[in-house]
């Protein structure tokens, strides 16, 4: 897991109350104090600490350690006495302090117990020491805060909600920020979110237009906009809020936010307003408390110890009964010769006392040393993991690292593995492999026996081509050259309908920055076939079409999300025609086509199924001509949905749905994403060990099944591969029951 690599296990509960108390002592106006526990909305005014302090928002200081000097002893002892054996030995110790039953000197128990407790305590203390150290390191990192118009260095922990922070390239974001302005054009900036969600591709964030012009520190120091937004929560991909500034009101979304844990990339500098700090940041809200973890071996040992203890009690009972019988039959007759000790006055009480004495004498049957041995074995294991040569990555020169010594043996007892597909099983390097345009497939290698045709050379045809692009089917290039309208539209769509950013270092030397590698591959394909995406501004897209520069005005972007499974753009070309271009999953796109596409649709779906059966990732492409009136009508309802403060997402989805209708099919693309090295072998070995593997993917079903076969998740000798297609709990349950009647479901 990459979540919070530099910020180990989190425990925040201590920080909040302490911090809040401190602010209360500063004598703030009690009438303004809001009940912080039920924060319903957050109000933040830029550059106004006094105003923001009324709300007692958490500061940017984080605490992930479990103990401090004072709490260490009680908390740690409390945790350790949850171990059955430790409690048992404490109990013995108390028994031994009673002289009438004590049969062994008290130190025979206290020495081993003290030893076990102190070794564990030292281990816990060291773990926590490292947490303290990393907390300190994080809290003391320097960030540049804008104070009275000048940029000053401040420690991260001194940053407050409402401050404006300056970030430079490759710096970690210190708190959850609203992006205000950036050194890049149009208030754009790029971030890497690997620490948050494990994805290493770059993401784009954009500031709202009213603040993107602020630029220099003086303007920003005078900025006194107020943000009203949702309270702290753990949703990484969502943010809703509104910015009020100088009579204007802007809707804020996740697209405007830089979250703590991200790294700024490819951007010289940017400024952000702190919205959530410290424990309120989305990163920290996502990391649970540091819990006391117990492995299944621990549980087993605890049960064993309980059984052994029961056995011990039984032995004590048998021996005490023997004692009672003997005292009654024989002992009592010897009273004058060997009298009972003072408090004992009958044989039953004598038996009661001897029961406890036997519990003490026989205590060695409970194996306390087992716990120590297991701890030592775990420590040894963790070293073996660190030394394992087969887990050494020779490319990045890193060895495996056991970060905890408490959970190692669980590794040998894994039953289920949950994996993501793209980027985990596959390389996440996408290559444009085949396509279907107007019912015609390109890129197919018809005869596998014939030698593979040569890689196409695009340089003569198009000086802007990417030399790394690889395609073998010359007929597609021919179609473009002879001016086939469908082919031109197909590549025009690919060069317009995406969210890729381009960077042109020197004339003609283009570098695409794509949020999703699929899009990168498609835009690069269009580039090689003569439809070169050059640059974009918030309102335009510039494309070099077969050597001719064309600037489209970008009227709307209908974003992709994983429910819609498609994205569209609406553009106006220089002749004034308005078109909607849409690309997305065939399942959703094909049902939104104009009825006149029926024949082409049948052919294209056959092609799509063929592509999917080869394990390729497919997308269908379509367009729609819009009249000026249609556009005007729709843009009004879109604007209305976009500025709505409640249910904005649903309203936007409805608006998108309205316009993405009656489209004309252009074709389909197929992209290959190769498996990572060693994946099939690894999966085969894991399934030999009877480990069940689940893979998550958003691909087309046929593609997913095919990839399942190629990575040996599914094998030919699995007789009973079945597909469950339900959308509700009930229907899934129904389908599962019909396949396996004996299955037990909750
Ligand atoms: N940029 C895009 N534009 C249009 N449609 C897209 C885009 N990206 C994905 N899709 C479509 O949406 C579907 C779901 O994609 P999504 O990215 O949510 O899947 P995923 O969970 O990332 O799956 P995987 O890990 O297999 O990539 C895809 O199968 C594809 O058809
Ligand atoms: Mg995806």
UniProtKB/TrEMBL annotation:
Binding sites annotated in the UniProt record for ATP: 420-422, 519, 560, 583, 617, 697-699
Transmembrane annotation, as ranges: 104-122, 299-326, 346-372
Assigned EC number: 7.6.2.1
Cofactor: Mg(2+)
UniProt entry keywords in alphabetical sequence: ATP-binding, Magnesium, Membrane, Metal-binding, Nucleotide-binding, Translocase, Transmembrane, Transmembrane helix
Topology term for the membrane: Multi-pass membrane protein
GO BP terms: Golgi organization; phospholipid translocation
Domain of life: Eukaryota
Subcellular location: Membrane
Domain P-type ATPase N-terminal, first and last residues per copy: 44-110
Molecular function GO terms recorded: ATP binding; magnesium ion binding; phosphatidylcholine flippase activity
Binding site for Mg(2+): 420, 422
Catalytic reaction equation(s): ATP + H2O + phospholipidSide 1 = ADP + phosphate + phospholipidSide 2
Active site: 420 (4-aspartylphosphate intermediate)
Keyword Metal-binding attributed: yes
Protein's UniProt keywords contain Nucleotide-binding: yes
One family name in Pfam for this protein: PhoLip_ATPase_N
Broad class of where this protein is predominantly found: membrane
Family of this protein: Belongs to the cation transport ATPase (P-type) (TC 3.A.3) family. Type IV subfamily.
PANTHER family for the chain: PHOSPHOLIPID-TRANSPORTING ATPASE ID (PTHR24092:SF46), PROBABLE PHOSPHOLIPID-TRANSPORTING ATPASE (PTHR24092)
Protein name per its UniProtKB record: Phospholipid-transporting ATPase
Gene that this polypeptide is encoded by: Atp8b2_0
């Amino acid at each position: 897991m990459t979540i919070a690599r530099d910020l180990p296990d989190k425990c925040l509960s201590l920080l909040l109350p302490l911090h809040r108390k401190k602010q209360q002592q500063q004598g703030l106006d009690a009438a303004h104090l809001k009940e912080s526990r039920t924060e319903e909305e957050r109000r933040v005014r830029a550059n106004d600490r006094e105003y923001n302090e009324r709300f007692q928002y958490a500061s940017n200081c984080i605490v992930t350690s479990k103990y401090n000097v004072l709490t260490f002893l009680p908390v740690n002892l409390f945790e350790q006495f949850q171990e059955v054996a430790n409690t048992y030995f404490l109990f013995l110790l108390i028994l031994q302090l009673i002289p009438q039953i004590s049969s062994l000197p008290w130190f025979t128990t206290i020495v081993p117990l003290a030893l076990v407790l102190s070794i564990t305590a030292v281990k816990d203390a060291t773990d926590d020491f490292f947490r303290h150290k990393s907390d300190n390191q994080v809290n003391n990192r320097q960030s540049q805060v804008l104070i009275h118009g000048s940029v000053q260095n401040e420690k991260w922990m001194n940053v407050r909600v409402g401050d404006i922070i300056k970030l430079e390239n490759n710096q970690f974001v210190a708190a959850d920020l609203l992006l205000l302005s950036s050194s890049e054009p149009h208030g754009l900036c790029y971030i890497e979110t690997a620490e948050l969600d494990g994805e290493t591709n770059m993401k784009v964030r954009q500031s709202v237009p009213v603040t993107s012009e602020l630029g220099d520190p003086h303007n920003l120091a005078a900025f006194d906009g107020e943000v009203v937004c949702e309270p702290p929560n753990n949703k990484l991909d969502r943010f809703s809020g509104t910015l009020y500034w100088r009579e204007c009101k802007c809707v804020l979304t996740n697209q405007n936010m830089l979250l703590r844990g991200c790294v700024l990339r490819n951007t010289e500098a940017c400024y952000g307003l702190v919205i959530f700090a410290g424990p309120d940041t989305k990163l920290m809200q996502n990391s649970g408390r540091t819990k006391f973890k117990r492995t299944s071996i621990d549980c087993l040992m605890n049960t064993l110890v309980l059984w052994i203890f029961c056995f011990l009690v039984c032995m004590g009972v048998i021996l005490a009964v023997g004692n009672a019988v003997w005292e009654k039959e024989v002992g009592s007759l010897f009273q004058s010769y060997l009298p009972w000790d003072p408090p004992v006055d009958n044989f039953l009480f004598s038996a009661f006392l001897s029961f406890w004495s036997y519990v003490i004498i026989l205590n060695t049957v409970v194996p306390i040393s087992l716990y120590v041995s297991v701890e030592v074995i775990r420590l040894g294991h963790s070293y073996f993991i660190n030394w394992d040569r087969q887990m050494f990555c020779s490319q990045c020169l890193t060895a495996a690292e056991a970060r905890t010594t408490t959970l190692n043996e669980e590794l040998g007892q894994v039953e289920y593995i949950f994996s993501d597909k793209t980027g985990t099983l596959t390389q996440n390097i996408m290559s444009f492999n085949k396509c279907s345009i107007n019912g015609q497939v390109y890129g197919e290698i018809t005869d596998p026996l014939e030698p593979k045709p040569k890689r196409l050379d695009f340089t003569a045809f198009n000086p802007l081509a990417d030399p790394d692009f690889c395609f073998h089917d010359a007929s597609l290039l021919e179609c473009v050259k002879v001016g086939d309208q469908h082919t031109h539209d197909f590549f025009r769509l690919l060069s317009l309908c995406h969210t890729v950013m381009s960077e042109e270092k020197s004339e003609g030397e283009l570098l695409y920055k794509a949020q999703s590698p699929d899009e990168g591959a498609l835009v690069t394909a269009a580039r090689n076939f003569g439809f070169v995406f050059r640059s974009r501004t918030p309102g335009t897209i510039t494309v070099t079409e077969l050597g001719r520069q064309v600037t489209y005005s970008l009227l709307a972007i209908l974003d992709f999300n994983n429910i819609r499974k498609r994205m569209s753009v609406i553009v106006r070309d220089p002749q004034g025609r308005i078109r909607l271009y849409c690309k997305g999953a065939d399942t959703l796109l094909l049902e939104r086509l104009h009825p006149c596409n029926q024949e082409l649709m049948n052919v294209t779906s056959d092609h799509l199924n063929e592509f999917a059966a080869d394990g390729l990732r497919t997308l269908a492409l379509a367009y729609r001509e819009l009249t000026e009136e249609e556009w005007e009508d729709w843009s009004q309802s879109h604007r209305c949905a976009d500025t709505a403060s409640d249910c904005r997402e649903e309203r936007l989805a409805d608006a998108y749905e309205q316009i993405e209708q009656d489209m004309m099919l252009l074709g389909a693309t197929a992209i290959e994403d190769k498996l990572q090295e060693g994946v099939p072998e690894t999966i085969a070995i894991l399934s030999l060990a009877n480990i069940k593997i689940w893979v998550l993917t958003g691909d087309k079903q046929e593609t997913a099944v095919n990839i399942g076969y190629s990575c040996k998740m599914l094998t030919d000798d699995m007789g009973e591969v079945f597909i469950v297609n339900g959308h509700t709990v009930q229907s899934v349950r129904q389908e599962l029951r019909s396949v396996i009647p004996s299955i037990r479901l909750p």
